[in-house]
Amino acid sequence: MLRSRDSSGGRPGCSSSRTGCSRSVRAAWWCRVDEVRNLLALYRRLIEARLRAQLQYRTSFALEISGTVLISFIDFVAILVIFANVQQLAQWTLPEVALLYAISGLAFAFTDLAIGHLDDFPGLIRDGNFDLLLIRPRGTLFQLLTADFQVRRLGKVLGALAVLAYALANLSIDWDLGRVAMLVVIVPVGVVIFASIWVTTICIAFWSVGAREASNAFTYGGQFLSQFPINVYDQWLRRFLAYIFPIAFVAYFPALFILGKPDPIGLPDWLRFASPLVAVAAAIVASAVWRFGVRHYQSAGG
After folding, report:
1. Less CB within 10 Å around the terminal CB: N or C of the chain?
2. Is 89 helix (H, G, I), strand (E, B) or coil?
């Protein structure tokens, strides 16, 4: 059975865990910093190469971006149709729901832009091509995450930004430093949550051929659920989204704080500030599930 291998790189003392990083906690810390720095630099170069390749056909690129922007508005049009018949949706106005949609949409769009190609991972397992990642010096997850970068998905980001502009223009928010910080921080936090869900659920491919459909039910389905206030759902689903499947921490709880809005279902106020901690926990779970899957992976040759 093949297993993944990681290389450190960076400082000379980091080339061997026994002679370098194990000498002290400080040395181990700097080894880790160097490793992360090297991986980020490599990722940047890979993205630049992808951009140059995809921008060679500018007309095609512009059409793809425009099409993606239009497609990204379809869900929001559905929201507009709902509010054409009602003034409020479970005590939420149209601009307030638009804020939820925009925060969730931005977080998911950036996630899809960076790692949307994870949907192809079950094919790698099925065809036996995952074995190639196992024999390379970089970590398997890093190789998989950096395997592609489709710039056309930037259209989803532009669409979500347009909805965010509409929401902020039609909301009376008592802005302070805390609310500004929340609006800035919550998008990357949401990216971590969505990415963690994506990695965790796509690991089903290690054991089942139907992993893509199962993963999409959680990723794309979860993103759809996060566009609406969770108090529109049944009680069991509210608790599931708040305490088990952490989609409510992408947009719902942060939006309550930004809007200064009481929670219609009376969940604890501290949940409004828990999204960063939830993101860290989700990333830890995703990493653990991935390592478990790789450790128990049976290669195509048996």
Report:
1. C
2. strand
Q: What is the mean pLDDT of the chain?
A: 85
- Report the alpha-carbon distance of residue 272 to residue 179 in Å, rounded: 11
Residues paired with residue 92 on neighbouring β-strands, in sequence order = 89
Report d(CA 287, CA 235) in Å as an integer: 30
How do residues 60-94 score in pLDDT, each as one tens digit? 778 878 888 888 788 899 899 999 999 999 899 99
| Residues 112 and 215 sit within 8 Å (Cβ to Cβ) | no
- Structure confidence at residue 23 as a pLDDT band (50, 70, 90): low
User: Is 232 in a helix, a strand, or coil?
Assistant: helix
Please tell me the distance from the alpha carbon of residue 179 to that of residue 199, in angstroms, as a whole number. 30
Question: Looking up tokens 């003392």, which residue turns up?
Answer: 13
Q: How far apart are CA 5 and CA 32, in angstroms?
A: 16
Rounded Cα gap, residues 238 and 150, in angstroms:
34
Q: CB neighbours of 81 closer than 8 A, spacing ≥ 6? A: none
Q: pLDDT digits over 112-167, tens only?
A: 988 888 888 988 888 888 888 888 777 888 888 877 777 777 888 999 999 999 99
> Using alpha carbons only, how large is the chain's radius of gyration in Å?
21
The pLDDT of residue 233 is above 80: yes
Q: How many CB atoms neighbour CB 278 within 10 A?
A: 20
Pair of tokens at residue 22: 């194990």
- Shortest CA distance to 114 belongs to which of 63, 73, 60, 151? 151
pTM given for the model: 0.83
What 8-state DSSP symbol labels residue 16?
Answer: -
